[in-house]
Hints:
Elements: H1 2-5, H2 34-46, E1 63-69, E2 79-81, E3 88-93, E4 96-101, E5 104-112, E6 118-123, E7 129-134, E8 147-151, E9 156-160, E10 167-172, E11 178-183, E12 187-192, E13 197-203, E14 208-213, E15 217-221, E16 224-233, E17 238-245, E18 250-257, E19 269-274, E20 280-285, E21 289-294, E22 299-305, E23 311-317, E24 321-326, E25 330-337, E26 340-348, E27 355-358, E28 364-368, E29 374-378, E30 384-388, E31 395-400, E32 406-411, E33 415-420, E34 425-431, E35 436-442, E36 447-452, E37 457-461, E38 467-471, E39 479-485, E40 488-493, E41 497-502, E42 507-513, E43 519-524, E44 531-536, E45 541-546, E46 551-557, E47 563-568, E48 576-580, E49 584-588, E50 597-600, E51 607-612, E52 618-623, E53 627-632, E54 637-643, E55 649-654, E56 660-665, E57 670-675
Amino acid sequence: xxxxxxxxxxxxxxxxxxxxxxxxxxxxxxxxxxxxxxxxxxxxxxxxxxxxxxxxxxxxxxxxxxxxxxxxxxxxxxxxxxxxxxxxxxxxxxxxxxxxxxxxxxxxxxxxxxxxxxxxxxxxxxxxxxxxxxxxxxxxxxxxxxxxxxxxxxxxxxxxxxxxxxxxxxxxxxxxxxxxxxxxxxxxxxxxxxxxxxxxxxxxxxxxxxxxxxxxxxxxxxxxxxxxxxxxxxxxxxxxxxxxxxxxxxxxxxxxxxxxxxxxxxxxxxxxxxxxxxxxxxxxxxxxxxxxxxxxxxxxxxxxxxxxxxxxxxxxxxxxxxxxxxxxxxxxxxxxxxxxxxxxxxxxxxxxxxxxxxxxxxxxxxxxxxxxxxxxxxxxxxxxxxxxxxxxxxxxxxxxxxxxxxxxxxxxxxxxxxxxxxxxxxxxxxxxxxxxxxxxxxxxxxxxxxxxxxxxxxxxxxxxxxxxxxxxxxxxxxxxxxxxxxxxxxxxxxxxxxxxxxxxxxxxxxxxxxxxxxxxxxxxxxxxxxxxxxxxxxxxxxxxxxxxxxxxxxxxxxxxxxxxxxxxxxxxxxxxxxxxxxxxxxxxxxxxxxxxxxxxxxxxxxxxxxxxxxxxxxxxxxxxxxxxxxxxxxxxxxxxxxxxxxxxxxxxxxxxxxxxxxxxxxxxxxxxxxxxx
Length: 677
């Protein structure tokens, strides 16, 4: 029975709340506590696919996640204000929930526990808990989409299975006792957070796309109040009463469908709110209109056109004021009740709004767009300002110059950005005509150099982003790698060629066919800039080329796997350090054909990002397992290991002053790490 209705999985008691999930001490016939048995049953359900083996814990490590830049504007209602702290905003970045302070970008808190993108979340009215749901798990069988309940401090309090494919909506009751959740499997649950038990489990005829709780009222028993709630299994709207039944000694849900006009209004609902008196329900639809229902009589009252591209969010304020966000970027402030409504103010922000929420004091709104931007709006006049912005597609490369406070990123959608590392804001943005592959900062010329998927290379002025020079057809196919040597630009492409260019004249100095397939990386030798090192993405070889003599110096080969990343030491014998597709780190001396050292990375998976610290004492490694590991180069022991990304890490770089690391990945996130070693 427990498996059918989806009980809790984990137990914990958060401080300052109602003794959540208190373990019962009486024993069953098998000698285990009832709670242990329930957790074991649910754990076996959720863990059917087998969890990956954990790496050994490190007691103290000189690495911590300082800031995460990103916002996954893919799902509706994934940006919310904290219910008690006025400047605290919670939003999603892939599999991670981020709590940030809009007034201070250096204050962030991370909630990490999902293994797939977070699709929705809710903040409890008491402010002490969060609940988050995800799309179908990539780790476990059965398309499990668990709901995790968190303490505001970041601790996991409990986990509820039962929903599959995706969690569509979550909502806390006004007293934070109950949590309502609905999934793409057409299931609706109401969990009692005091006991961890399932209070309601229903199979509905349509997916509940939106739900909300209304005001509480005194029930038949003083100890057990009566709750009201609205669910929208589109195109139906249902009013529910959750009332304690003395006969069965439990809460029972009674449902009443709302009546529509005879001509019919078939809608899919994105959001719903109830007024403070519990008399009216206001729904936002995919068509772009508001539908108002009287919940006492369960009848439709009126329709109000708002937006031309759907309504994503509705925020209810005091004095019968509502704020409505549209898919065309419009935000409208309305006041009224029942059939009488008037517009008090309106504005339009760039892009489509996917989420909007009202602050605890009611003085501001926060709105998120699918372009990765968050806006803050004044509730009086709806004037807005840009609070943060981020990439929304895979970030393919990152580059530092000599200045440790600035770095550049290039993304798959062709968006180039220059960032201020101190304030985490964008200094420069430039949109290319094709996907961006590589980026460099040329300090002497104060330029940003970008290699594109269409085979071109462009140079932009760092100050204003103006195009200063270009090589229209640097390669047949994409530019896959770049480096600077002796003031020249070295490029590698999908055509297997390595070319050296004089810039800004864009004159070809020399070229050679280095590999049979795409060139994975090119490096100008640290001590002898006329030597160029490159590896093939598919031919398992490293080639060292003498540009002065126009001849190949030496080639290194491997028998298994493929090269996936490369850097070079500035100390010792200036060895090349390579990461392989099957997790090995190999060291190569230019005078030796075979590797002079090898280490199996703890991730045991493709190493896509590798970087040495400026003093060459530390080696940062990451890849498809999304974890960042830092090795002591002398002993090749892991001294730091952290997880920040929700996907493959594409590049990692130390800041020139070696105080921080920055990683970028396929999840469109930028992680800034503090480094204390």
